[in-house]
């Protein structure tokens, strides 16, 4: 029978010193508790319940729309057992195993959850828990065993005797229970040093009920890493980044100075992608085979097809770059910038909601907003689409093989038909017919001998 997972995430997180609830702090672009939720579902959970406290409404909204996910609120933080008890209304009729994890330890692995469920079932135990051995067990609950190695209880740091403090086997806080959990939770009291309802007291309660306590030991102490402060958040981020980089390198991605490259779990990379130092890849960015991204480029929710090239210091957001197209260095592709195959965008060119057709070029210093540029057209340096009249945005439509001379302003709405030619420095506010030359600037006048006269050198 499939299991359920309860994630305890009602703690205050005061050490983060933030207005944002701790469990919503982003870790590689994804909220902390999102890792626990994804791990829970990946383990095959039928239902997932998150116990939230501080900022409950905000947490709920962040994950709205997840099926089989519910939230319960723990109004007062009276301890981990009390937190778990809040999930009872949702799971009272659930007959399968119930896994409990902590919302601030995002590195807990899927296999840890599944092997706890397996162990509970195989050993017909009432409760199964994870344990670890640490050089320095300070702060964690210590596991007490009898001479036969049977687990007797957990003792919290605050309540431990000096002899118990020396125990190196600890409780990482990940458990699995049978369906009698809710009955047993009622027996937990708060007579301890912290005056809290301790969840690990269930060990003693299950044992007193004559049920077996099973355990599995994990060697991966990295799984334990919890986030209580900004520094720990950065540490966990470092671990996750290393995992991600190793994963993609094993898939054939070349990273130059990998430790300088930032990428998020939602990013997808094909073999033979090359990433130069300082590259930042965020959101649903997808890079095709052989794509090269130059140093310090930032790509957010951007697709680059096989063989596309993003040169250094280019910033792209919601952009699409087709095969053989390239952008940068120092280009800016804003949402809905679209380069068709072989299109080229050079330095200090900004595109927003603009499409460059096959082989079209905007080599330097231009702004193309709400524009369509036909294939093989050339946009000169300094060309600006004046797309905004102070109230509304207007479109600029440029046909095929059009030449727009440097420093021209195209005042939208405007249409330049195929093969049109705009003379440099023009202010264009009327459509240009196919094949026509448009020139819209003051005619030049040369005044002979002017300079000499001005200097008083009369002949
Ligand atoms: C807990 C365990 C300890 C274990 C450690 C592992 C208890 C009493 N102790 O201690 O044995 O070694 O985890 O990390 O359980 N929470 C609530 N509501 C509350 C209190 C806590 O939702 O009233 C949540 C927190 O948000 C957190 C989790 O439960 O995600 C653990 O709480 P925390 O206070 O961090 O427990 P520890 O002192 O670390
Ligand atoms: Ca903790």
Automatic annotation (TrEMBL):
UniProt pathway annotation: Bacterial outer membrane biogenesis; LPS lipid A biosynthesis; Nucleotide-sugar biosynthesis; UDP-N-acetyl-alpha-D-glucosamine biosynthesis; UDP-N-acetyl-alpha-D-glucosamine from N-acetyl-alpha-D-glucosamine 1-phosphate: step 1/1; Nucleotide-sugar biosynthesis; UDP-N-acetyl-alpha-D-glucosamine biosynthesis; N-acetyl-alpha-D-glucosamine 1-phosphate from alpha-D-glucosamine 6-phosphate (route II): step 2/2
Region (N-acetyltransferase): 252-459
GO biological process, one term: cell wall organization
Pfam families documented for this protein: Hexapep_2, NTP_transferase
Compartments where found: Cytoplasm
GO cellular component: cytoplasm; membrane
Binding annotation for UDP-N-acetyl-alpha-D-glucosamine: 8-11, 22, 74, 79-80, 141, 156, 171, 228, 334, 352, 367, 378
Residues binding acetyl-CoA: 381, 387-388, 406, 424, 441
InterPro entries: Bifunctional_GlmU, GlmU-like, GlmU_C_LbH, Hexapep, Hexapep_transf_CS, NTP_transferase_dom, Nucleotide-diphossugar_trans, Trimer_LpxA-like_sf
Entry's EC annotation: 2.7.7.23, 2.3.1.157
Alphabetized UniProt keyword annotations: Acyltransferase, Cell shape, Cell wall biogenesis/degradation, Cytoplasm, Magnesium, Metal-binding, Multifunctional enzyme, Nucleotidyltransferase, Peptidoglycan synthesis, Repeat, Transferase
Gene3D superfamilies: Hexapeptide repeat proteins, Spore Coat Polysaccharide Biosynthesis Protein SpsA, Chain A
Binding site residues for Mg(2+): 104, 228
Cofactor(s) this protein requires: Mg(2+)
Coiled coil: none
Main localisation: cytoplasm
Domain of life from the UniProt record: Bacteria
Region (Linker): 231-251
GO terms for MF: glucosamine-1-phosphate N-acetyltransferase activity; magnesium ion binding; UDP-N-acetylglucosamine diphosphorylase activity
Subunit structure: Homotrimer.
Family per record: In the C-terminal section; belongs to the transferase hexapeptide repeat family.
Function per UniProt: Catalyzes the last two sequential reactions in the de novo biosynthetic pathway for UDP-N-acetylglucosamine (UDP-GlcNAc). The C-terminal domain catalyzes the transfer of acetyl group from acetyl coenzyme A to glucosamine-1-phosphate (GlcN-1-P) to produce N-acetylglucosamine-1-phosphate (GlcNAc-1-P), which is converted into UDP-GlcNAc by the transfer of uridine 5-monophosphate (from uridine 5-triphosphate), a reaction catalyzed by the N-terminal domain.
Protein name: Bifunctional protein GlmU
Species of the source: Meiothermus taiwanensis
